[in-house]
Specification:
67 residues, mainly alpha, 43% helix, 2 helices, single chain, 0% strand
Amino acid sequence: MPPVFAPPVPFPYALPSSCEGYQLAMPNSAFAAKIVRDFVGALLRTGAHAGLADDARLCVSEVVSNV
C-alpha cells in the first residue's frame, strides 16, 4: 500500500506574537521533581492557564523523574 501524504492540519488557536520564556536548571537530586513541579504549577496558576496546572504538574513530574 503506498503512503498517503496529507497537508498538515492548521493549528486551531492563534499563537501570541510574543511569548514569555522561562528557564530552570536543576541539579541531579531527589528533590528536583518536586521543585520543578512546584515551579510549573506556580507559573500556570499565576498566568492565564490555571486550569492546566494540575495536569502540567503531573507531566513535568513524570518527565523529571524519568530523567
